[in-house]
Amino acid sequence: MTEDETGATTSPTLAMSDVVKRFGSGATEVRALTDVSLTVEAGEFVAVMGPSGSGKSTLLHVAGGLERPEAGRVQVQGIDLADLDAAGLATMRRRDVGYVFQRLNLVPTLTAVENVALPLELDGMGHRRARREAMEALGRVAVDGPLDRYPDDLSGGQQQRVAIARAIVGDRRLLLADEPTGALDSVTADAVIELLATLVQERHCALVLVTHEPRFASWADRIVRVRDGRLTEETRPSGIGDEIEAATR
Ligand code: ADP
Ligand code: MG
Predict the structure, then answer these.
(1) Which end of the chain is more exposed for a tag (fewer CB within 10 A), N or C?
(2) Which residues contact 112 (CB under 8 A, 6 or more apart)?
(3) Of the bound ligands, which one is closest to the alpha carbon of residue 49?
């Protein structure tokens, strides 16, 4: 719990405690997450690093309610996801959580603005209002050029900005980004990470970013490392404070 500007206590945007996630059973069982605890407050940017297959994507899927854990607790904005039925979970995913994936997942037959408006329209918002909010979200991520272009007519960087606009539209508070720059050149990738970091500040939302690039992780407030499904350490990006602390212990 933390106090907001008005002095009221608020729940963390994401609170995971002792989460276990397994796939399969018996001899083929994979323990993708073991006793994972992670709290992310509004306004915080946490980077998740770790080798391939260590459980990073599973961590995001469980955090965002795409997968249910076998044990432990996941709360988004103070709501325990275990208390939600399938419909409640679907609503929570649409309204509160924004996902940005490595593959951009834009619908090729919809224009940029239609792609961003889609989650709002799926949630029952009228067409005009959804379009207006989509334009506003696109403005926030600085997509220039005609918004009525189709994804195939946009550059990779523009497509990723559209995907980010879709993730933040409707004021979603928890952004989950899984290697969102994998398909981009390095200059464009830097711009996308800077944009995400700026959005966290401006909108006071929470961001969990999976990345294998230390350069991108250095933008984060905290870095969490996953190894064999466990969170192994938590460092501040600079690491200097920790080294001094360790040396004086
Ligand atoms: P990362 O994103 O760090 O590469 P993942 O979270 O994708 O790792 O996977 C963690 C482990 O869980 C891996 O061993 C992977 O094979 C396994 N896994 C992930 N998703 C599934 C699934 N749907 N079915 C079976 N095993 C899975
Ligand atoms: Mg992954």
Answers:
(1) C
(2) 106, 138, 143, 147, 148, 149, 150, 151, 154, 158, 162
(3) 1
